[in-house]
Design goal:
- It is found in: Cell membrane.
- Keywords: ATP-binding, Cell membrane, Ion transport, Iron, Iron transport, Membrane, Nucleotide-binding, Transport.
- It holds the Pfam family ABC_tran.
- By secondary structure, the protein is an alpha/beta fold.
- It folds into two domains: 156 residues, Rossmann fold (3-Layer(aba) Sandwich); 67 residues, no CATH class.
- The chain is 33% helix and 26% strand.
- The radius of gyration is 20 Å and the shape is globular.
Length: 282
């Protein structure tokens, strides 16, 4: 049985529909990357799959049951979510932040058990945060801070981890640091990881499964070599690009060189960009 999937999922804000009749299944034990241009709906899909947003129609199924009808604590024991740019209270230490991950397993306002403390120590160790456990989160570098939040998510003890643009605002070294950690968690612990990714070359290098989204619909999904094609890049991102194999791994790399032309002249634009241009010329 499929672990997590959607059927005819429709999502919107007020009267504006962002995603309509989406059918998406998340492969177990794999890293899945959701890719698409700004405003394509990828973050909206991720948020709805983990219950942050409620759908207008359709269903997200977790273990055969609607995820939106299950108790919050039950869901939190099965999947963890790291949203974009999470913020910790001033002065909160790394170990205190990570301890919040044990909340779904606590009864009432109970203190941390021996098992909780062991899991917290494990999460600190596996994310390489031993030297920072007593340091305030707001005094960490970007990469260290992301690792602390990932450790908190790991402390939930779930086998599914969702991340919304986990490398945003990080420099290249810290991006690599975070992505390699996620890769290691997948390889060593068989965790299912789903992440929204902006950098296509990060997606092809670190994901087993890619889902290319345009205007809330799936244009292409599958292994990186199936999704990273000139046709998909043209349709989803509005670019012309050379596709070359990574000299180390053989996965496809994207080298964009031109905006894609459309019939009648001009280039592809996202709907909100077109709207802004119309307003400016009015």
């Amino acid at each position: 049985m499929k672990r997590l999937y959607t059927e005819q999922l429709t999502i919107g804000y007020s009267d504006r529909v962002i995603v309509e009749n989406l059918n998406l299944s998340i492969p177990e034990g794999k890293i899945t990357a959701l890719v698409g241009a700004n405003g394509s709906g990828k973050s909206t899909i991720l948020k709805t799959m983990v219950r942050i947003m409620k759908p207008n129609g359709g269903t997200v199924y977790l273990d055969g049951k609607s995820i939106h009808s299950q108790p919050t604590k039950d869901v939190a024991k099965q999947l963890a979510i790291l949203p974009q740019n999470p913020v910790a209270p001033d002065g909160l230490t790394v170990s205190e932040l990570i301890s919040y991950g044990r909340f779904p397993h606590q009864k009432g306002f109970g203190s941390l058990t021996k098992e909780d403390k062991e899991i917290i120590r494990w999460a600190v160790q596996v994310t390489g945060m031993n030297a920072f456990s007593d340091r305030p989160v707001d005094q960490l570098s970007g990469g260290q801070r992301q690792r602390a939040w990932i450790a908190m998510a790991l402390a939930q003890g779930t086998d599914m981890l969702f991340l919304d643009e986990p490398t945003t605002f990080l420099d290249m070294a810290h991006q690599l640091e975070v992505l390699k950690l996620l890769q290691r968690l997948n390889e060593e612990q068989d965790r299912t990881i789903v992440m929204v990714v902006h950098d296509l070359n990060h997606a092809t290098r670190f994901a087993h499964h890619m889902v290319a989204i345009k205007q809330g619909s799936i244009v292409s999904e599958g292994a990186p070599e199936e999704v990273m094609t000139q046709e998909v890049l043209r349709e989803v991102f509005g670019i012309e690009a050379d596709i070359i194999p990574d000299p180390r791994t053989g996965v496809p790399l994207c080298l964009p060189f031109e905006l894609a032309s459309i019939e009648g002249g001009g280039h592809h634009e996202q709907p909100y960009v077109q709207a802004e241009r119309k307003e400016a010329s009015a």
